[in-house]
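Lab notebook page, bench 4
Experiment: in silico fold of construct C2
Operator: M.H.
Input chain length: 377 residues
Purpose: comparison with the prior construct
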Amino acid sequence: MAYNQTFVNDTSKNKVEIQEHLDMTKVDAIVSRIKSKYEKQGLLEDPDSKNLRELRGLIAEGKRAKIEILKPSDLSYSFNPLVRKVGEIYTKFSKFFDFISKKILSAMPESKLLAYELYSADMNYSVSQYLAISSVILFFVNTILIIAFFAIFLLLGITFLVPLALTIMLFIASIFVVLKYPTSVAKKRAKEIDTQLPFALRHMATLLRAGVDLYKVIRTVAVADYGVLSQELTKTVMEVEEGQDIKDSLRALALRTKSFALKNAVSHLLRALKSGGNLSDVMNTIADDVSYQILSEIESFSGKMNFLGVIYIFAGIVVPVMTAILSGIRNAPLGSGTSFLDALPLTPVVIMLLFLVAFPIMLFAITMYVKSIRPNL
C-alpha cells in the first residue's frame, strides 16, 4: 500500500518494521485506474461517490475507512440462512437490540479493535453488523440459560439469588466470548499460515531459482493448495491486478495477518528486493527458520502435556471418585456420628452441582486450554 505504516511485534523480543513514505500521487493513480475499470463495467455511476472516497482512504491510511457501508439491516439479505434470520430479528426489534449492541457491547474495550480483528479473521462483516449478530445471539442464549437455571434451582429448593448470580456471571462471560471470537479466528488462521509457510516458501524459492518473476511466483502459490496462506496470497494477487505495486501489496499482506512468521518473511523479502539480494536463498533461509520454530513449539507442547495429563487424570478421575466415595459414606446411616464426615458439605444438592456443573466446567476448561496451546500441524 502507498501509505506510511509501521508494524511492531514484540513477540520473542523481535521487532519487524515495515515503513514507506506516503505518496498521494501513487494513491490517486491507483484510484483513477480502478475508477476507469469500474466505469467501463458500469459499476460506478458517480465518480466522486462515497465508495471512491473510502477506497482512497483505505489505500492512503491503511485501515478501514470510518464510513460505515455495511449496516445491520443488510444482514436480512445475507446468503447464510442463519445470518439472514438473525438480521430479520434484529430489524424487527432494532430498538431493543440497539441498546445491547451500542450501549453494552460497544462500551467494552475489546470492541475498539474489532474492525481490525474482523479484517484479520476474514469475516466479511462491518463492526455494527457483527455487534448486531452478537446482540441477538447473546439475548437468546442467555434467555435459555436463565430459564434452565431457575427451573433447576427451584426444583432443588435453592433461593433464586444463586441462579440470578450465575446468569449475570455467564452474561458477562458471554460478552467477552463474542467480542474475542474474531481474535481467536484470526489467531487460528495465523497458525494455519505458519504450518504451510515453510512449504510455500520452498516452492517459491524453487520457482525463483528457475527464473520466474516474483508476481508469477506469488500467483502460482496462490492457486496451489496451501490453505489460508493461498487465500491471503489470492488477495495480494487481486490487489496487484487492481494496479497496486507488488511491494505495497506484500506490506498489506503482512499487516492484515497475525502470523509473525509471515510478517518476518515479508520483511526479509522486501529488504532483499530493496538491496538486490538473492530472493531464492532468502526464501530457503526463512523456511528453515520457520521450520525450526515449529519444531520448538512441538517440543514445548510435549513438555506441557506431561504435566497437563496428570492434572486431567486427577480432575477427571481421582477427584470425582473420591467425592463419590466420601459422599456415599457421609450420607449413609452408618456415617452419622463421625464428626469429620458430618463436617463435609456433601449434601445431595452439593453433589449434584459438583457432578453436573463444577466437574464438567473444569474438564472443559482444561480441554480448551490444551486446544489453544496445541501446535497446528
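Observations: Residues 193-293 form a domain with the Receptor-associated Protein fold (CATH 1.20.81.30). The chain has a mean pLDDT of 76.
Next step: discuss at group meeting.
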